[in-house]
Design a protein that fits this description.
Elements (H helix, E strand, L loop, with lengths): L6 E6 L6 H15 L9 E5 L1 H10 L4 H15 L16 H11 L12 E7 L4 E6 L18 H9 L8 E3 L2 E5 L1 H4 L3 H10 L8 E6 L3 E2 L18 H23 L3 E4 L2 E2 L10 H21 L4
Parallel strand pairs: 1-2, 1-7, 2-3, 7-9, 8-10
Antiparallel strand pairs: 3-4, 3-6, 5-6
Helix pairs in contact: 1-3, 1-9, 2-5, 3-4, 7-8
Length: about 300
């Protein structure tokens, strides 16, 4: 945690394999400043693939290692079942994702994580939002409860359980799905946490928000607009996630004004399990780091 009066936040979007963009951008930042990402921020917030990266950051894992994770492990995570009845089974077995998380992320209870961390999820039994928090000091437990005994791995798996792609994750008698359902871009909840729980003034908050790509080729005019023929089934989920990300960014910008930096590349419509664009996404991250280097450094104390 930094020692300045400014409260620095890192907010990381969901997006499946597109998270390699975020990891590569953060790896470039770590190389430029010569220190781990977690030392630069007072609060790190992640959704889904962003939760993996956030969990790695607070665990002091180099971002270059997480880039390698995406490069080498995503073909295993998104390896389809040799049999599948779409109406009855998720697209991918959750065991494959759990194996990768166990291989790369420590089994640390959230209560033992010193860096303030938030991971978003969705409780699908009662239709409620769920936020996992590390144990960051004295605060109103009624406003911001801490799940001290939940391990980091389980919180990440819950945040990554994208509907139809993976089965829900059971944690402490809760049935949890991906945080992307309500906070694919966690900027707005991160700003709210800083204002309410940490008691910071908006003018004292600086947030770096990293997306995983804004599709510029989602829908075209057509005759039939049925669920499959027009809305495209899974495409509709991606569209809703994109809208939420934009709305969250807009809200954070209104709250923080010039203290909010959003970096999110324009991409084609690449689904969250796309394995063909990993190198392209890394190249986009390299380009955007060079493009925004001065702005990024202004948002990071080092």
């Amino acid at each position: 945690m930094n020692n300045t009066d400014t409260f620095h936040i890192l907010a990381l979007d969901g997006g499946g394999t597109r998270g390699i963009y975020t990891a590569q951008l953060l790896a470039k930042i770590e190389q430029a400043i010569g220190t781990r990402i977690k030392t630069c921020f007072d609060l790190i917030v992640g959704t889904s693939t962003g939760a993996i990266i956030a969990g790695a950051a607070v665990s002091d894992i180099p971002m270059t290692d997480i880039v390698e994770l995406f490069d080498t492990e995503t073909p295993h995570i998104f390896k389809r079942r040799w049999y599948r009845i779409p109406l009855f089974l998720s697209k991918y077995p959750s065991e494959q994702l759990a194996q990768v998380i166990a291989k790369h992320i420590p089994e640390t209870p959230l209560g033992e994580i010193a860096t303030p961390l938030m991971i978003t999820s969705s409780e699908i039994t009662k239709s409620e939002v769920q936020i996992f928090r590390s144990n960051y000091g004295s605060r109103d437990a009624g406003i911001a409860p801490t799940n001290k005994e939940v391990c980091l791995r389980d919180a990440i798996l819950a945040s990554c359980a994208a509907p139809t792609f993976f089965a829900p994750k059971s944690v402490d008698n809760l049935l949890l799905a991906d945080g992307c359902l309500w906070a694919n871009n966690p900027s707005a909840i991160a700003a709210t946490e800083a204002l309410s729980v940490f008691g910071k003034e908006a003018r004292k908050i600086r947030m770096l928000s990293i997306g995983t790509g804004h599709s510029i080729n989602m829908y075209r005019q057509r005759r039939g607009w049925g669920f499959i023929t027009g809305w495209g089934g899974a495409k509709l989920t991606s569209y809703v996630m994109t809208l939420q990300a934009q709305a969250s960014a807009h809200t954070a910008k209104l709250l923080l004004k010039g203290n909010y930096l959003r970096i999110n590349p324009e991409i084609d419509r690449w689904e969250i399990d796309n394995l063909t664009q990993l190198d392209t996404l890394k190249s986009l991250a390299d380009r955007d780091f060079e493009k925004h280097a001065a702005e990024i450094k202004a948002f990071i104390p080092f």
